[in-house]
Amino acid sequence: MSTKNKEYTLRLLENNTWWKRLLDVQRPYRMHMQRLKLGHVLDIGCGVGRNLINIGGSGNPVGVDHNAHSVEVARSRGLIAFTPEEFRASSYAKPLTYDSLLLSHVAEHMRREEVVSVLREYMPYLRAGARIVLITPQEAGYKSDPSHVEFMDFEALMNILREVGVRVLRQYSYPLPRMLGKVFKYNEFVMIGQK
Q1: CA 147 to CA 70: how far, in whole Å?
Q2: 6-194 belongs to CATH 3.40.50.150
Q3: What is the model's pLDDT at position 13?
């Protein structure tokens, strides 16, 4: 399954059912994202804008995604989002501008060398000392999506950050302990580094 087509965008939107909105199932995740205090963040692989919304407007988050259909949905939600080509041509593509880079539920859709390439492409836009946050699903979540390509655990994420010259600051399992990642679909690896 390609993450670049309209069907993938529709799949992302299907996850936003009425009962999930009613129960506000995104609240714990939203609180987690806000506790990270990402500042002016560049969200690579922003999709339809879920994390841009969860981060909130205080840091004026900017999203980039290779799926033009998803970018269109994000913009319709009042978010700042671009395809990579649009971003590079925009006034938002200024070197040393962003406090952090977020790559959430993106790395597992690529091979390791592709993740390294993407990070290297966007590193010039980050200020010195900027944080890089990588979030990937653990085993149950990884198996739940046919578009996943490569399992990215703590070791893989750490090696990726080191390869792009980023110092690892912290890693943790969210929202539950690591041992539950094999059965709880929403458990994630969180890796934080610093440029």
Answers
A1: 16
A2: yes
A3: 79
Domain-wise residue ranges, the chain: 6-194
The tokens describing 150, both together, are 């490569």
**This prediction's pTM:** 0.93
Catalogue the long-range contacts made by 6-10 (C-beta closer than 8 Å, 24 or more residues apart). 6/69, 8/67, 8/69, 8/70, 8/147, 9/47, 9/48, 9/67, 9/69, 9/70, 9/73
Q: Which helix (H) or strand (E) holds 74?
A: helix 68-76
Are 80 and 71 in contact by the 8 Å Cβ rule? The answer is no
Please check the confidence at residue 193 and state whether its pLDDT lies above 70: yes
How far apart CA 43 and CA 70 sit, in angstroms, is 13
Can you tell me the distance from the alpha carbon of 49 to that of 44, in angstroms, rounded to the nearest whole number? 11
Q: pLDDT tens for residues 96-135? A: 999 999 999 999 999 999 999 999 999 999 999 999 999 9
The answer to whether the beta carbons of residues 131 and 194 sit under 8 Å apart is yes
CA-closest candidate to residue 87, choices 142, 124, 131, 136: 124
Mean pLDDT value across residues 134-157: 97
Whole-angstrom distance, CA of residue 171 vs CA of residue 159: 13
Instruction: Please determine, for residue 157, whether its predicted confidence score (pLDDT) is greater than 80.
Output: yes
